[in-house]
From TrEMBL:
It comes from Thraustotheca clavata. SMART domains: MUTSac (SM00534), MUTSd (SM00533). Residues 546-562 form the DNA mismatch repair proteins mutS family domain. It comes from the Eukaryota. This is DNA mismatch repair protein Msh6. GO terms for biological process: mismatch repair. The lineage of its organism: Eukaryota, Sar, Stramenopiles, Oomycota, Saprolegniomycetes. GO terms for molecular function: ATP binding; ATP-dependent DNA damage sensor activity; mismatched DNA binding. The keyword Cytoplasm does not apply. Belongs to the DNA mismatch repair MutS family. PANTHER family: DNA MISMATCH REPAIR PROTEIN MSH6, DNA MISMATCH REPAIR PROTEIN MUTS FAMILY MEMBER.
Length: 696
């Protein structure tokens, strides 16, 4: 691999950027083209990328676009001082575990888009719009003004629904302009036409291949023409949001460029023949060759008239079709006779006629063949040069594609926000000193879309109570509640309306999730190790602005060790970090530790239990205050169709364990009381404890 200085030398040698290097790279270099000390590793890494791109023969196509950006890790973007809740970073950070656990892109059942949040929200109709929408989904905004600008634009589009329908119909007919721009850029490259293996390839179906290239080019031109109709539609509508008015004002001016390409060549002919024949005034080399051909043909016609006059024969004509034997003077023998000019060179003859070349004809023919070669060469390279001319406006084309992508995404969110039942515009708190989260009647968007009777729930975190310990029966809806709150926050900061009666909170900088349990056999990592490694990521990177959900932490080890680990994690999140946290657990002893805590809210997923058979449980899926006394695991065993004898045995053993535990606790309490009485020298208390023990 290359070091930093070799990378710079290779970039210079290859001439990817010409005389104008990208600004990002210029910032990494001194005036003498040496690499700055803090940029050595970045430039070396770039060298590895360039080396790999060269092996793939796509280095010129990609690097010549000069699309470089500085990457700043989110953890290095320091938030503003603790007393304010404004965030300085641009996007919410979502790690891989969160993307997986919240099923943002794929479901966890079979790995498809079905049932994912992406599938639920994405109503874009263009390829480039879909890519931007996925980017929005994975990078929610942190800036409240930027979020509000999106929400204002969405409200504007909801109010102008008929315009949105027309715009989406136009967008639906557009090709994937973003990819076509990259393809045209590659096909217009001088390097590709001379040094790339493509230039030496023999295309057996070259006409089909050429027609396909022209089709893509014409499709791109027609797509940008259609985009001008969208600008006109939006400009004539009654929009007043800042984002959309800026969209109309900043859409690039494409009329002149598109007019040029309309007049530059006949699109119909090009699509039929697979070649671009430029109109006059478009290509100087082609025009010069045509002018030269016209001049030479005129000179040949004049010379023919001269010979007719000299030989006094009007029937003299040019004959011949072979490239080097054309323009032979076919002269009747009666016109030549014994008066054949000395410079006439006999080339062929037929009955009654002789055919001659002259030095003048040979000179004109040589000039004609040279001009034809220049024309053929100009025509052969005309498609590439036309593509290169188109690519010279790459910045404008990409600006237009970005605008169209933005509008496609906003239109998609407007459909979700305006046509989904029970969706409300979120509001953000920028004045509160402490982070808060207040969601009323919130729903999980993907589940609620398939279950009309989905039970909504309220969630309030923040102020003095930044943490909620959540208990409840198995399958009672704890994990769904955890996920739905994260998704509602994500949707809100994405700039979308949310499925709730109201949603008010301070922006989050990161969303962390610790859900499920699995090992990694090939990595030699047990279930507990995986759980704790994910928890370590949360504890090391969460800030007080983060939103954290943890589900049943510590279940990969013994009950006592698991409870101890869960307790210490809760304490660290509560006392050290102070972020908004929802912690679901079946460790009732852990929940009881915080019965009197003013900083922890206790909640449980409510259920109804049959008083005659506690194995029969009806889930209410409703968050209620307080703790749940049992987890009702045997009810889940019944639902899972375990054999009845197994369930009966488990029920008996469960009662035995409970009684043994009660005896242990009672013994422990008695020992403690005896020690206290001895320490106090209280004989009466000792006698009473003895009598009570004998009686029991």
């Amino acid at each position: 691999m290359w070091d930093a200085m070799r990378t710079v030398r290779e970039l210079e040698k290859a001439g990817y950027f010409g005389d104008s290097w990208p600004t990002v790279l210029q910032r990494c270099l001194e005036s003498d083209m040496t690499v700055k000390g803090d940029c050595v590793l970045a430039i070396s890494a770039l060298g590895g990328c360039v080396w790999n791109l060269r092996r793939s023969l796509i280095d010129q196509e990609l690097l010549s676009l000069s699309q470089f950006q500085t990457y700043t890790p989110p953890d290095q973007q320091v938030t503003s001082p603790e007393k304010t809740l404004a965030l300085s970073q641009q996007y919410v950070v979502l790690d891989g575990h969160t993307i997986h656990n919240l099923e943002l892109l794929r479901n966890n059942y079979n790995g498809t888009r079905s049932g994912s949040l992406h599938e639920q929200l994405d109503k874009t109709v263009t390829g480039f719009g879909r890519r931007m929408f996925e980017d929005w989904l994975l990078k929610p905004l942190c800036s409240v003004p930027a979020i509000e600008a999106r929400l204002d634009a969405i409200q504007d589009l909801i109010d102008n629904h008929s315009t949105v329908v027309e715009i989406r119909n136009i967008l639906r007919g557009l090709p994937d302009l973003e990819r076509l721009l990259s393809r045209i850029h590659a096909l217009g490259s001088t390097h590709r036409s001379t040094n790339h293996p493509d230039s030496r390839a023999i295309m057996y179906e070259s006409s089909i291949y050429n027609v396909r290239k022209i089709k893509d080019f014409v499709a791109a031109l027609n797509g940008f023409k259609a985009s001008l109709k969208i600008v006109s539609l939006l400009g004539d509508s009654s929009i007043n949001s800042k984002l959309l008015t800026q969209w109309v004002a900043t859409f690039p001016e494409l009329n002149d460029i598109l007019t040029f390409f309309d007049k530059a060549f006949s699109h119909t002919v090009a699509l039929k023949t697979g070649t671009i024949q430029p109109q006059a005034g478009v290509d100087n080399e082609y025009d010069d060759a045509l002018y030269e051909l016209t001049t030479i043909n005129s000179e040949l016609d004049d010379y023919l008239q001269t010979q007719r006059t000299a030989l006094k024969c009007k029937t003299i004509v040019y004959w011949g079709s072979k490239r080097e034997d054309r323009f032979q003077l076919e002269v009747p023998e009666s016109a030549v006779g014994s008066k054949q000019p000395a410079d006439f060179e006999l080339k062929s003859k037929k009955k009654g006629c002789k055919r001659f070349h002259t030095p003048t004809i040979r000179k004109l023919l040589a000039r004609l063949m040279a001009a034809e070669d220049r024309k053929e060469l100009a025509l052969k390279d005309q498609t590439r040069r036309m593509f290169a001319t188109f690519d010279s406006h790459y910045t404008k084309w990409m600006q237009a594609v970005h605008c169209l992508s933005l509008l496609d995404c906003l239109a998609s969110l407007s459909l979700i926000s305006g046509q989904s039942e029970g969706y409300v515009r979120p509001t953000f708190d920028t004045t509160s000193v402490k982070p808060l989260l207040d969601i009323r009647e919130g729903k999980h968007p993907t589940i609620a879309s398939t279950l009309p009777d989905f039970i909504p729930n309220d969630t309030v975190l923040g102020g003095d109570k930044s943490m909620m310990l959540l208990s409840g029966p198995n399958m009672g809806g704890k994990s769904t509640l955890l996920r739905q709150n994260c998704i509602i926050v994500l949707m809100a900061q994405m700039g979308c309306f949310v499925p709730a009666a109201s949603c008010h909170f301070t922006p989050v900088d990161r969303i962390f999730t610790r859900l499920g349990a699995s090992d990694r056999i090939l990595a030699g990592q047990s279930t507990l190790y995986v759980e704790l490694a994910e928890t370590a990521t949360i504890l090391n990177h969460a800030s007080r602005h983060s939103l954290v959900i943890l589900d049943e932490l510590g279940r990969g080890t013994s009950t006592f060790d698991g409870t101890a680990i869960a307790y210490s994690v809760v304490e660290h999140l509560l006392r050290v970090i102070g972020c908004r946290t929802m912690f679901a657990t079946h460790y009732h002893s852990l929940v009881e530790e915080y019965l009197e805590s003013p900083n922890v809210a206790l909640g449980h997923m409510d259920c109804m239990v049959d008083p005659e058979n506690d194995q029969k449980v009806v889930f209410l899926y409703k968050l209620a205050e307080g703790i749940c006394p049992k987890s009702y695991g045997l009810n889940v065993a019944t639902l899972a169709d375990l054999p009845q004898e197994v369930i009966d045995l488990a029920g008996k053993k469960s009662l035995e364990f409970e009684e043994a535990l009660k005896d242990t606790f009672a013994c422990s309490e008695l020992q403690s009381a005896v020690r206290n009485a001895v320490a106090a020298g209280d004989i009466k208390a000792l006698r009473k404890l003895w009598c009570d023990a004998v009686v029991s």
